[in-house]
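Tutorial handout. Part one gives the primary structure; part two gives the three-dimensional structure as C-alpha cells.
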Amino acid sequence: MEKYSKTLTPKTSGVWNADETLVLSKRGKEKGNLTGNYDYVWNVMDNKTKFLLASINSGRSRSSKDAQKVFTEAHKQNGKIPFQIIVDGYKGYEDGCRKTFRNWGNERKVKFTSIKGQRKAVNNNAIESHHSHQKEFHKVRRGVTKVQEYQDGFKVFHNFVRKNARENLTPADKCGIGINGNAWETMLLNAIKLKNSRNVTGEEKMMITP
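Part two.
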C-alpha cells in the first residue's frame, strides 16, 4: 500500500516540519551502541495538512546523511521543493537540507528554520504529537521487529485512515487525494492493481494494447 501511496501527489502548503525520534526495536542490542534496543525514525510532515510525506528508519544511525535521505523521500512524494523546512535543534538537518536542495549561497531555495529553545508561533508541535501517538502503539506491541515496514504501514494509516477528531478529515482529504468508503480495502485493491500492472512484461502489454 505504501508503494501505491507514493504514486499520489498531495496538494501541500510547501512548509514542512521534520523531526526524528527513537522507537523500540526487537532486533536486539549492539555492542557499544548508546541507543540500546531503539532505532531512529525520521519523519517529514506538511505543516498545514499534516500529511506525512516521508518516514524513514535509519537503524542506530543519526547523521546528516539520514536527514538528507528523508528530505529526498519527502521531495519525491511532494513533487516539488518546499518553501520552508522547520526543524528542532539538531544541526544535521541544515546540512541535509543544503545537500538535498543545493541550498547555499545565492542559490538558496528553501527557508531553513531551527526552533531550538522556541515555543512560539513557529513550532514542531504537530509532528511531535504524531511521534507521541505512534509511541503509544509501540508500547502495546512492546517493540517492532521490522521497523521500516511498520513505519510504512503507519504512514498509510495516518494519511488515509485516521481522521482528525475536530474536522473528521484525514490528511489525504485535506490534500485532495482522500479515499471514500473503506480506506484500507481501497488502498489494498489499488496496491494489488499497481503490482499486477508492473508484473506484466513489455510483450504482454503489446498483446493487451488494441
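Part three, for discussion. The chain has one domain: 2-208. The first strand starts at residue 15 and ends at 24.
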